[in-house]
Design a protein that fits this description.
CATH class of the largest domain: Alpha Beta
Order of helices and strands: EHEHEHEHEHEHEHEHEHEEHH
Strand content: 15-25%
Distance between the termini: 59 Å
Bound molecules: 6-O-phosphono-beta-D-fructofuranose
Helix content: 40-55%
CATH topology of the largest domain: Rossmann fold
Largest sheet: 7 strands, mixed
Strand order of the largest sheet: 3-2-1-4-5-10-11
Structural class: alpha/beta
Shape: elongated
Radius of gyration: 22 Å
């Protein structure tokens, strides 16, 4: 089959925003323009496709954004796009603008939509993994993860100062609906005594025994980093259970929340966003369609969108062991 030549490309950001999305938009637009393509921004994810909120972008449209968090294209979850009728309207709007290729920057939910759309219509889609949660297979890192972990680490370091001054047990909740990568990486990076993630069942008795035993040894400063999606209900749930079992413990909680999603992207996020954005356009031009652009072992890796959707990354046993050994 001879692949159609792409001439006009739309770019959108979808799902939860992630620091580095702007750097990715910039890379997609500038690379497309470099190769003589017409570039279009689509506002608020699939909602802009459905509502025809689409505008042409030039090089200046993406000037001075590489260092900014959030996304200049804004983001949303579009319920109409879940329905075939909604996707048809979105397709017709792309056709009206002459758009014949799409770059979607988002998480697995966004790729799910892209997968359905590209099955139904003749518009090739390229996904770029943009989520702080890092819960997508086919890439070592997602755009935004490194910034979120650095934000969490800076916040936890501050908590440690006051925790240490008061000899307290602190339970800090970090983001991650179904994935514990932010907890694992920020927990290791701050020397947490315990890290609770949804991918592994927490043995609460073991946790309580370990904390009680430390209390006896007068090791009163203990940091527990818990994922919001943990089975015991994040920091609130874990603190309630710990207080029931160790009534004397001086426990405080902190929920870091959405500060982890904002702020200037780290060097690493700017770098991977730029690299992935560049390769998204290369893929569209070369006819490598309906894939997610990832980086594995510092090399580009193209994963079919349906695999990026279904497969969740496996938490590495090595990291779990390191976390345990270093906290002992
Ligand atoms: O983008 C991922 C994420 O930040 C998750 O870690 C979190 O559970 C979720 O988004 C929160 O979404 P919202 O901002 O819609 O509450």
């Amino acid at each position: 089959m001879i692949k159609k030549k792409i001439t006009k490309v739309g770019v959108l950001t979808s799902g939860g925003d992630a620091p580095g999305m702007n750097a990715a938009i910039r890379a997609v637009v500038r690379t497309g323009l470099y190769y003589g393509l017409d570039m279009y921004g689509i506002m608020r994810g699939y909602s802009g496709m459905y509502e025809n909120d689409i505008f042409q972008m030039d090089s200046r449209s993406v000037a001075n954004i590489i260092q900014r968090g959030g996304t200049i294209l804004k983001t949303a979850r579009c319920k109409e796009f879940y329905q075939p009728e909604g996707r048809k309207i979105a397709y017709e709007n792309l056709k009206k603008n002459g758009i014949d290729g799409l770059v979607i920057i988002g998480g697995d939910g966004s790729f799910n939509g892209a997968q359905k759309f590209s099955n139904e219509f003749d518009i090739p889609c390229i996904g770029l993994p943009g989520t702080i949660d890092k819960d997508i297979a086919g890439t070592d890192f997602t755009i935004g993860f490194d910034t979120a972990v650095n934000t969490a680490i800076r916040a936890i370091d501050k908590i440690r100062d006051t925790m240490d001054a008061h000899d307290r047990l602190f339970i800090v909740e970090v983001m991650g609906r179904d994935a514990g990568y932010i907890a694992l990486h920020s927990g290791i990076g701050t020397g947490a005594e315990h890290i609770l993630i949804p991918e592994r069942r927490t043995n609460l008795d073991e946790l309580v025994n370990s904390l009680s035993e430390k209390e006896k040894r007068k090791k009163l400063v203990n940091l527990v980093v818990v994922t919001e999606g943990d089975e015991y209900g994040g920091a609130e749930g874990v603190s309630k259970l710990v207080k029931e079992k160790i009534p004397n413990a001086d426990v405080r909680i902190a929920i870091l929340g959405h500060i982890q999603r904002g702020g200037a992207p780290t060097a690493m996020d700017r770098y991977i966003a730029s690299r992935m954005g560049y390769h998204a356009i290369e893929c569209l031009m070369e006819g490598t369609h309906n894939v997610m652009v990832g980086i594995v072992d510092n090399k580009m890796k193209y994963t079919p969108l349906n695999k990026a959707v279904k497969a969740k990354q496996q938490v590495s046993e090595e990291w779990l062991k390191i976390a345990k050994v270093l906290a002992s």
